[in-house]
């Protein structure tokens, strides 16, 4: 299980689309596949029930209702870069090329976005730390505001080398690393892959990333092929992530009230 | 053969030299690295070398110990332990621990130091950090930039709304700042309780300036004023001494002057007699040398008011020449209040109002004087 997690982290092994990631590794627990049960028994039965209930249904948080293909089209998500900028590994996700402009396949985007939002919702439900990363100067403020509104964290500034890999020295001993990193653009300002993707893979942190036609989708856990340069598209993504996270957190509060827990535990278990 | 031997020996020696030099450089590099890591640890100190260093509990403990020690010291000296001030402490310590050291800062001391602010733990019991920009590393600085940019966007939206209504005017409502300056980098670091680089500081100032240039930025005046400090007024104009009248109705002015180690003060009276007294003595007696008397007279002679004023001078310290120079400066300054601005400017141009900054240069070790070296011997 751990080995499998490591291989998928480091080599970007593609698992089947239906199942979501499954394995406890180090401090991180991933959302289990619908059939499997989490291996470690929980302290309280009520907490266990709260945590297991979302895993019984495929789309427990109904994230598919948040967007439609028309929304994606109106937000210009299908527009890729020119043919010359195309990354070889993005070719499966492209619908075609028209007058040298790449068009991203929105059906695939729909599926990938549903998976990504579902995963984000589960992480937020279990009280995980979500880090929004984007190195695009024009959307930095928007991303930071989105993160503040969700109650999560953002990093749209210069990425210091050891932020994830040298965290104990940079922040202090006993710091908790993010449980999910969402890249609203996987490239940095010099059109190279953002260091955070590689570092997250090294630290076994799952990533969700909006990959444009000039990006490398291999190390991203949940790639979402789509446009990352148009303001309309990025505003759409921010809105969607904010709504899923808020929805998941509200749901968690509801469940705790229903099952009569007064002090909510927010540890990922 | 021999040549090749010499060459190989030379190259071998050369290699040794480079080896030793590289070892030296490696050693220095290692020590530099050690120093760098130490300073790096100091900078992002939190983990290594004393994480308990300046926490609130540590500071409180130090303050308590200081108070207890102060009471013990007062009891030892037989004085009132309630009203024992810092000066009393210093006096007691110099009495109890007499030290012959020249360096004042190396002597025994009992004082509370100013503890630099230290960031408390940044995350809660569940591990979630409190600040949403925690993972950037420089949360206070980046949150400041985030807020600043938010304010700029707000001003732009305000401008757009006014433009839509047709009420926009270009030169309306720029912030009036008054005599103030931006916070220096050190002051900003103190405010944010974290270190920032010069690059970061420059960007912050640029963004602030950008906001100030926008019309309708007066809505954010309070935010901007938080990052400005009042300028200590440093006017380029000469401070003219006040013209007072004594009980006989005679106008007089007082001024001071310094040169090397001499201090002087002069009272210039508009009597009309030209009488000069230095330290109670007549100036002819006090300055037997003509050069010193010339220095004294020069300001009056330059402005052509030789017989008009009475001088009452006091001077101390230094030698005869520096006392004369100090008096000359004091006389010129006192004269300013009797003259017009144009005359004052003429005096300034002549160099009468400029204090002479030259002081005695110290003697250096390995040399005979300040500049004189020992006699160079070839062997």
UniProtKB/TrEMBL annotation, chain A:
GO cellular component assignments: mitochondrial inner membrane; mitochondrial small ribosomal subunit
UniProt entry keywords in alphabetical sequence: Mitochondrion, Ribonucleoprotein, Ribosomal protein
CDD domains in the record: RPS2
Protein name: Small ribosomal subunit protein uS2m
Location in the cell: Mitochondrion
Function: Required for mitoribosome formation and stability, and mitochondrial translation.
GO MF, one annotated term: structural constituent of ribosome
Family matches, as Pfam families: Ribosomal_S2
Family assignment from sequence similarity: Belongs to the universal ribosomal protein uS2 family.
PANTHER family: 30S RIBOSOMAL PROTEIN S2 PROKARYOTIC AND ORGANELLAR, SMALL RIBOSOMAL SUBUNIT PROTEIN US2M
Keyword Ribonucleoprotein recorded: yes
Any one biological process term the GO annotation gives: translation
Superkingdom as given in the UniProt entry: Eukaryota
TrEMBL record, chain B:
The family this protein is said to belong to: Belongs to the universal ribosomal protein uS9 family.
Organism: Maylandia zebra (zebra mbuna)
GO terms under cellular component: mitochondrial inner membrane; mitochondrial small ribosomal subunit
PANTHER family per the UniProt record, alphabetical: RIBOSOMAL PROTEIN S9, SMALL RIBOSOMAL SUBUNIT PROTEIN US9M
GO molecular function per UniProt: RNA binding; structural constituent of ribosome
Subcellular location: Mitochondrion
Principal place of residence: mitochondrion
Annotated stretches, region: Disordered: 349-379
The name this protein goes by in its record: Small ribosomal subunit protein uS9m
Pfam families, A to Z: Ribosomal_S9
Keywords: Mitochondrion, Ribonucleoprotein, Ribosomal protein, Transit peptide
Single Gene Ontology BP annotation: translation
Taxonomic lineage: Eukaryota, Metazoa, Chordata, Craniata, Vertebrata
């Amino acid at each position: 299980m751990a080995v499998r997690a490591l291989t998928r982290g480091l080599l970007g092994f593609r698992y089947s689309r239906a199942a979501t990631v499954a394995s406890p590794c180090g401090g991180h627990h991933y959302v289990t596949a619908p059939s499997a049960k989490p291996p470690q028994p929980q302290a309280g039965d009520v907490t266990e029930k709260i945590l297991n209930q979302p895993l019984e249904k495929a789309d427990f948080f109904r994230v598919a209702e948040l967007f439609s293909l028309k929304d994606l089209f109106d937000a210009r998500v299908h527009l890729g870069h020119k043919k010359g900028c195309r990354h070889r590994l993005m070719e499966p996700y492209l619908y075609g090329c028209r007058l040298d402009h790449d068009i991203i396949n929105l059906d695939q985007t729909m599926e990938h976005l549903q998976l990504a939002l579902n995963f984000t919702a589960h992480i937020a439900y279990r009280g995980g730390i979500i880090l929004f990363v984007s190195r695009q100067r024009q959307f930095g403020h928007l991303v930071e505001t989105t993160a503040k509104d969700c109650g999560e964290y953002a990093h749209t500034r210069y990425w210091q080398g050891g932020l994830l890999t040298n965290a104990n020295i940079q922040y202090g001993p006993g710091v908790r690393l993010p449980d999910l990193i969402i890249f609203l653009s996987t490239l940095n300002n010099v059109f190279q892959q953002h260091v955070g993707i590689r570092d997250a893979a090294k630290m076994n942190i799952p990533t969700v990333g909006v990959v444009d036609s000039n990006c490398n989708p291999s190390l991203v856990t949940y790639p979402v092929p789509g446009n990352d340069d148009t303001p309309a598209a990025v505003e759409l993504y921010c809105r969607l992530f904010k709504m899923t996270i808020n929805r998941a957190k509200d749901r968690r509060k509801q469940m705790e009230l229903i099952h009569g827990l007064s002090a909510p535990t927010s540890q990922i278990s | 053969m021999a040549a090749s031997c010499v060459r190989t020996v030379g190259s071998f020696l050369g290699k040794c030299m480079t080896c030793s030099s590289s070892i030296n450089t490696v050693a220095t590099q290692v020590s530099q690295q050690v120093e760098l890591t130490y300073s790096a640890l100091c900078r992002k100190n939190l983990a290594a070398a004393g994480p308990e260093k300046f926490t609130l509990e540590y500071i409180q403990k130090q303050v308590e110990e200081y108070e207890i020690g102060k009471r013990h010291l007062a009891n030892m000296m037989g004085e009132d332990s309630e009203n024992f001030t810092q000066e009393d402490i210093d006096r007691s310590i110099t009495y109890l621990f007499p030290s012959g050291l020249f360096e004042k800062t190396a002597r025994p001391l009992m004082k509370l130091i100013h503890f630099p602010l230290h960031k408390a733990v940044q995350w809660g019991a569940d591990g979630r950090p409190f600040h949403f920009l925690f993972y950037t590393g420089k949360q206070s600085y980046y949150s400041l930039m985030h807020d600043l940019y938010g304010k700029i966007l707000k001003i732009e939206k305000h401008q757009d709304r006014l433009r839509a209504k047709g009420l926009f005017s270009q030169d309306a409502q720029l912030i009036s700042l008054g005599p103030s300056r931006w916070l220096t980098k050190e002051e900003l670091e103190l405010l944010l309780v974290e270190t920032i680089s010069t690059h970061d500081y420059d960007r912050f100032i640029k963004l602030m300036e950008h906001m100030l240039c926008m019309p309708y930025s007066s809505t954010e005046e309070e935010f901007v004023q938080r990052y400005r400090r009042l300028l200590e007024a440093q006017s380029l104009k000469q401070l003219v001494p006040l013209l007072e009248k004594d009980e006989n109705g005679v106008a007089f002015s007082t001024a001071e002057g310094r040169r090397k180690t001499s201090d002087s003060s002069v009272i210039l009276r508009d009597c009309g007699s030209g009488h000069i007294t230095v330290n109670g003595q007549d100036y002819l007696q006090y300055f037997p040398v003509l050069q010193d008397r010339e220095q004294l007279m020069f300001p009056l002679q330059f402005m052509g008011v030789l017989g008009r004023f009475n001088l009452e001078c006091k001077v101390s310290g230094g030698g005869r020449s520096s006392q004369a120079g100090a008096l000359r400066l004091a006389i010129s300054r006192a004269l300013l209040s009797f003259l017009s601005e144009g005359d004052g400017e003429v005096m300034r141009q002549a160099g009468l109002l400029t204090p002479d900054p030259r002081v005695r240069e110290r003697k250096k070790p390995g040399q005979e004087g300040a500049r004189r070296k020992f006699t160079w011997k070839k062997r």
